[in-house]
Amino acid sequence: MRIIFAILALFLVMPASCAFAAVPPLLPMEDFFRNPSNAAFSISPDGTRLAFARPWERRMNVYVREISTGDEKRITSATERDIAGFFWKGSGKIVFAQDSGGDENFHIYVTDIQGSEARDLTPFEKVRAGVLDDLEDDPVHMLIGMNQRNPEIFDVYRCNIETGELELVAENPGNITGWMTDHDGKLRAAIQTDGVNESFLYRTDESQEFRTLITTNFKETFSPVMFAYDNKMMYIVSNLSRDKTAIYTFNPETNETLDLVFEHDEVDAGGILHSKKRKVITGVTYTTDRRHYKFFDADREELQNTLDAFFPGLEVAVADMDDDERRIIVRTYSDRTRGAYYLFDRKDNSISKLADLSPWLRAEQMAPMRAIHFTARDGLKINGYITLPVGVASHDLPLVVIPHGGPSSRNSWGFNSEAQFLANRGIAVLQVNFRGSTGYGKSFWQAGFKQWGRKMQDDVTDGVLWAVEQGIADRSRLAIYGGSYGGYAALAGATFTPDLYACAVSYVGPSNLFTLLESIPPYWKPFIEMEYEEIGDPSKDKELLTEVSPVFHAENIRIPLFVAQGANDVRVNKAESDQIVESVRKAGKDVVYMVKENEGHGFHNEENRFDFYRTLEEFFRKHLGSR
Fold it and tell me: Is the Cβ–Cβ distance between 435 and 459 less than 8 Å?
């Protein structure tokens, strides 16, 4: 089966019941942005051990715990950079990923549970690698994708984790952007692109050549999710001849889309739940205001109901299972708590806590996140979330709007450290799923094409004006802050609506769309024509890109500006921040500029996060009059 690394991760008005709650104490900034006490629990296939991440030397490292005895051992020794993700390879080894200084050239390492020195399985300079299939039934090998031969594309290799030997399994002809295996680990499907059109390739077995089954424009979705357990049929996500993506069964031999598995009239279909042991599809997920389940399997529905009964009022998710599906890792969370991990034993119906993620944060001192919607100036319905401070009247508050990154992404309900931190400082936080966000169908997504700084920005502006009209926000104390695309939106807000905001913060945000498109990582180049369709073509749309690039209009920025950037950012090059800072300073305005030399697209090292949020807090205190 295709697998993905377990990533270490580190929203109406307030109901009357909260309006009279006590004002919580001013909590230390560090409490919101510290590394979790423990995170990312997973269970060994044989159900005897747990692997999890915990801080050591201020970096997230991997530990292993014996379930029967509780004995623990740290098995990695990262001191420069967090372990980015890890998984069990069998029940005796851990495979993990790590980059250097935020360069996103992830290497793949393996170590045993005794903590022997980890071995780099991809020890190549300026090469990015990822695991395609862990080959769970093969104790020695796994399949990886790597761009060693050509930095723009990824070939598939069979990696021997004992010797480090790499055997080329599939050489990328130059236009393959994704590979897919069946449940036996055979390479059976691929996605190919010509820049704007994507083709789904398939073969019955590895002795055959791939053949094209269907070609669609990238604006539409026809995406294989997984093989059925017979390795013949497939499950696909598609929005062909419809607006919202739905899940179907698909026969690749006859090239026929068959039964509709799931659809929702408001949002796109989400992920597929399945039982490896019983070899059945058990349900699907989807997200409206928050995540929901649709079950097809009585056993899986019973499990969810049992877990929900243990934790009333909390969201409960199954994070992992052993091969027997007896011992289950359970994750709880809500909008007011990062939650905890538990171990549930189905045999005796017992549950035990493994760890709280952030035990120093108390849920009753956190602020509720509420779903909202408003109508944009052109009549389009826009969804979002608002988080209001606890214990104060919900009107005339300072407000920070935080546009999400991507922009092909979305905000979702749950615990948000930034929203909680700002709410604790007496600031309302607005998060807007502007047009161009994903999850609401292809029409809503495509409505954002070539609308950077235009209608996408208008949606953010209209959300802020909605909060003012509702009486929630004080018109004189508004700020815009975001990262990545959200950083661009912050610069655009400061540039194109300079009278709306009191201050702005751009965190690893682009300022010049020409240089942004010129400096993308090499492995994004197969998608460059799609980027031109979504953002604008530097040749054909020169006037548009000039119009919406803040750097060319820096003289309009009259409000205080804070810019933060990682020196090793491969997505938004440091030059993006350098340009806007230089332009604003030339216009006679001051800018707070923070650069971290050992970071990339976002600050991951704890001490750098602390520096950033400490400066952010002082910036908002000074310009918004926050608590």
Answer: yes
What gap in Å lies between CA 554 and CA 557, rounded to an integer?
5
Q: Whole-angstrom Cα distance, residue 293 to residue 41? A: 22
Q: Beta-carbon neighbour count of residue 617 at 10 Å?
A: 16
Q: What is the pLDDT of residues 271-323, one digit of tens each?
A: 999 999 999 999 999 999 999 999 999 999 999 999 999 999 999 999 999 99
- What pTM does this model have? 0.94
**Structural tokens at position 340:** 């905890």
Contact 161, 140 (CB under 8 A): yes
Does residue 335 belong to any structural domain of this protein?
yes
Q: Residue 71 in 3-state DSSP? A: coil
Q: How many domains does the chain have?
A: 2
Does 356 share its domain with 503? no
Residue 65 CB partners (closer than 8 Å, separation 6+): 49, 50, 51, 52, 71, 72
Across the beta sheet with 340-345, what order do the strands follow?
315-321, 327-333, 340-345, 350-356
Is residue 463 assigned to a domain?
yes
Regarding whether 373 and 355 lie in a shared domain, the answer is: no
Same domain? For 440 and 507 the reply is: yes
Sheet holding 222-227, edge to edge: 222-227, 234-238, 246-251, 256-262
Residues catalogued as catalytic = 484, 569, 601
Same domain, yes or no: 358 and 419: no
Residue 5 scores a pLDDT above 90: no
Query: What are 121's two structure tokens?
Result: 């399985």
| 327/319 Cα distance (integer angstroms) | 11
